[in-house]
Amino acid sequence: MSEARKSERLANLKKPNSGHPEYENQSIRNPAVNEQSITHNTDSNKENGANTASTSGPAHKKIKVNDEHLKEKVAETDFEAQKKSELSRDETKDRKTQESKEAAKDEPSEEIQKTAPKIDSLEIPDDLELQLENEKTVNVKKDVINDGKLKLIFAYPKACTSGCTKQAQGFKKIYNELEKTYEGRVEIYGLSADKPAENLKFKQELDLPFHLLSDPERKLIHLLKASNKDNTKTVRSHFVWDNNGKLIHENIQVSPDDSIEKGENQLTNFLRT
């Protein structure tokens, strides 16, 4: 073999994995090398596994702790919401009970007169006079009933009480709405046994757009039979007269809501005919 060939072969021997068949699959032919590589990889995997375990373990525990904390918070929130709901229901119940008690003060406890005035037979005396809340004296028949307008008079037990306030506010709304469509064709009056000063306060507090009739001697109240048996207390009622002064509707012993609803229907139905 020539010297050049020997030098080339020697150089190739110094280059590992040179691609020469003799040196391919060296790792297979050299078990020591392969075993060392496997051992190294196994140790690395164990180390990585240990690192993963040391990292994921506490994190997983922390997530569980956070979940339990969240559940406790949700439970506390649900409990607080339930307590608030119960308190709200109790407060609503107490308020309704108080309103019922206050409303009961408005109504007479004695037996109510059951016989309403007959529409065809009711006659307002020519000389019956009452005072308005401003202390102006009016003739009921001439100045109120026979003024040429559709008329509603609602009787209420006591000014500035809850039920009477609700009734008056309802008729205030009705009056304002009807004025938009039927301007000047409808008149509403309140009627009670309160003194003019008490009715004035009532009107001012609610900003009522109509007058309140004061009937301390219960003359008109008794005539309309909007009172208890011995005429000592007023029964919540309302009455409607047409524009010719004829009584066309009477509603005695009604709740504030019924008085408002029926009164509105009776007025609007007449105006539409």
From TrEMBL:
Keyword Disulfide bond: yes
GO biological process terms on file: cell redox homeostasis; cellular response to oxidative stress
Region entry Disordered, spans: 1-120
Keywords: Antioxidant, Disulfide bond, Oxidoreductase, Peroxidase, Redox-active center
PROSITE patterns assigned: THIOREDOXIN_2
One Gene Ontology term, aspect cellular component: cytoplasm
Catalytic activity: a hydroperoxide + [thioredoxin]-dithiol = an alcohol + [thioredoxin]-disulfide + H2O
Compositionally biased intervals (Polar residues): 24-57
The keyword Metal-binding appears for this protein: no
Family, as annotated: Belongs to the peroxiredoxin family. BCP/PrxQ subfamily.
Name this polypeptide is given: thioredoxin-dependent peroxiredoxin
Organism: Hanseniaspora osmophila
